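Entry 14. Ran structure prediction on the chain below.
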Amino acid sequence: MSNAPYLSAMSRSFHVMTKPIGPLCNLDCKYCFYLEKEKLFPADEDYRMSDEVLETYIRKYIQSQNTPEIHFTWQGGEPTLMGLDFFRKGVALQRQYAGGRPVHNAFQTNGVLLDDEWCKFFAHEKFLVGLSLDGPEHIHNRYRIDKGGAGTFDQVMNALRTLKKWRVEFNTLTCVTRQTPPEAVEIYTFLKKQGVQFMQFIPIIERSGDRVAHSLGLDLAVPPDLSLKNNPERMMPWAVSSEGFGDFLITIFDEWMKVDVGQVFVNIFDVMLNAWSGLEPGLCTFTRYCGQGVAMEHDGSIYSCDHYVYPSYFLGNIMDISLEEMIYSSAQVKFGQDKWDALPTYCRECAFLFACHGGCPKHRFTNTPEGASGLNYLCTGYKKFFKHIDPKMRKMAALVQKGQPAAAIMEKDSEGVSESVGRNDWCACGSGKKFKKCCGK
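Output, structure tokens:
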């Protein structure tokens, strides 16, 4: 099969999720899939990115970006453990090698170490900060605990206040677990009360490992791990159910639709509006191909994806070869194409293929109703969610097509928006047909 469509998509840009401290963290969140990655490195590893690796990475990454602006992403583990001077040095190197191009930095943190000095730096350098916050205290502290087993809610709330004090641009990342769906309104209301305008909700899906995982000393499943595909006993106790995640998203969506469209921005809703407008969903989970977002460990090792930091997905080291060689290697091209090529017929015939594209490959470990492998664990929940939002998404897409803000949907009744679409307009569902021959039938 030709890889031309994939390479065409790849040519736009790719990005690297950088882990300067590797899997080390000052917390011990019960549901974290990354903490155990320590076992993949030598026992005497110090997990701190050296100055040599930092400079080589920044130079090579900037050289590889054929874009007017350059985006860096810093994650962990917990990147604040590297200390502020490390990131001051990084920003200086970015300026040195950027050749005048604007450079943007995104920084994911648990917030425990954030203080005025950190937030002043973020504000001055215009970092976008992702703050992990699972909701009110009793929800957040359920899993997000420190090494001593104590909850971290108070420290995270202090971080949020300090970010706001210094007017740092930030969003929140909220993990959705098995217990979360009935708490959806409580979580959403709480985040709004804290002045959070940008939210992401992340489903926690992990399984106990098979012999491959155990051979690496790991407790959690190594993808693809298709053994015992539909065995619910292998799901970890905190893993959200497929139906539960769908219900959670539906509840949040209904709350958002009441008064918050255009005021509060929920990542997956923005992504779906793109899809319903006939555009490529702007999140790798829902794109046709993947492979454009690799992960780099503290020692310069590059892996196919943040969710695939395992020996069999190792692409090379930044100290030895270029990023382009790794990104466009046959192994990574196949990894990216397989997201589409490996889709079962059940997915290809789905009415919501345009929005989902099969979801994240890491979660494709269940069977279709016909018994074919490769169905996403979240399929049932996603379908339920997509069916629920479909009427509203069509109307918002139609508004945007007319040059009106999506928020105008809150001011119109359900009939009024439908009537605003002309019979000869292109249908907002992305079918490529005129409205009169598609959803306007």
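Residues 423 and 440 are 7 Å apart (CA to CA). Will compare against last week's run tomorrow.
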